[in-house]
Amino acid sequence: MRDEILISLLDRELNQLSRHKVFILTHSGGDPDSICSAYFLRKLLKEIYNVGNVWIDVPGSPTAHVKALIEYFGIGLTQNVEDVDAYIVVDAGSPEQLDEYFEVISRGDKYVIVIDHHSDTVNRYSPNVKVYSSERYQSVTEVIYDLAEYLGYRLELRDAEAILIGLYYDTVRFSIADLDTSSKICRLISKGVILNSILAKLEQTVDTSERIARLKGASRMKIYRFRDWLVVITNVGKFQSSVARSLINLGAHLAIAIGEVDKSRVAASMRASQDFIEQTKINLGIDLAGRIGVKFGGYGGGHASAAHLECNASIEELAEYLVDELKNRLGINPEVLEA
Ligand SMILES: [Mn+2]
Q1: How far is the CA of 34 from the centre of ligand 1 (A)?
Q2: Domain boundaries, given as residue ranges, for the chain
Q3: Which pLDDT tens digit goes with each residue over 26-71?
Q4: What is the 90 CA–ligand 1 centroid distance (Å)?
């Protein structure tokens, strides 16, 4: 167990929910970690904590990948349930990621519990919100799994499958799985999960518009060389996170994809390689997305090596500010490479 204190406090909190009506929300669009943790948490709430009713929703609209999971696990979403006693938000590092539920969660008159593993989550929600978050966890699914082990809950095959899928995608297909996660993977596999056959059903083919966005992102990028660090900044209207990720695969240490949300607002996704994060000590979620989002009248957050922000600026303004910020933090004047 990674953090027994967190888990025991969370257990104590959930014990208050007996016979309550609970609404679980993922972050906007959902992802495998958030939907799998919601699925398994609902089981624990019903079977262990005697919760009366539990609904799940994905704010905004679920991505294709999430839709496939919803179908596979028979999750069933319910929109806008009124008259609930408590909300549980999973995997959302800030309330802005709750789209249409932002207002009700932020109003301050509801019982809200947040379970998360992003940087600085506790400071993003209003003080009345009960935040159970630890960056030591590699996924929220893992938090819920630790809770299940703490409770001595016997997993069924379906539970083990859901947990493995959450772990799989939030560790970038196990590539960054640490010792704790890896030993959990072994325990889950030993329950009889046949991972390759599940993944074959769930893997989405990348659709054409996303492929085009990645290719356009690559052809438009500007390359900044901060001595041995290669930073690329590009602009694309959609799929910014997919674009940033693919530019890391091309060879960048830090990739930032910016796109317009509307006339005055932009969104940006950033990704960095592990060596960049370790050696520069820059935390993208806190130092770049979080700080710059707020500075430009918006918000941002995420993890050390993957983050997202939305703010009031033009693409050029934001790009220029980011380069300046990196110049200061790295103490290096970048050389702009000719494409
Ligand atoms: Mn997550």
Answers
A1: 6
A2: 4-202, 211-337
A3: 999 999 999 999 999 999 999 999 998 999 999 998 988 899 999 9
A4: 8
Q: How far is the CA of 50 from the centre of ligand 1 (A)?
A: 26
Distance 119 CA to ligand 1 centre (A): 11
Q: Which residues contact 128 (CB under 8 A, 6 or more apart)?
A: 108, 112
The CA distance from 334 to 320, in Å, is 12
> What spacing in Å lies between the alpha carbon of 171 and ligand 1's midpoint?
9
Domain spanning 4-202: CATH superfamily: inorganic pyrophosphatase (n-terminal core) (3.90.1640.10)
CB-based burial label for 335 (10 Å; 0-12, 13-18, 19+): exposed
Q: Calculate mean pLDDT across residues 262-279.
A: 95
Contact 254, 289 (CB under 8 A): no
C-alpha 36 – ligand 1 centre gap (Å):
10
- Tell me if the domain spanning 211-337 has CATH number 3.10.110.10: no
How high is the pLDDT of residue 168? Answer: 96
Residue 140 CA to ligand 1 center (angstroms) comes to 5
Predicted TM-score (pTM) of this structure: 0.85
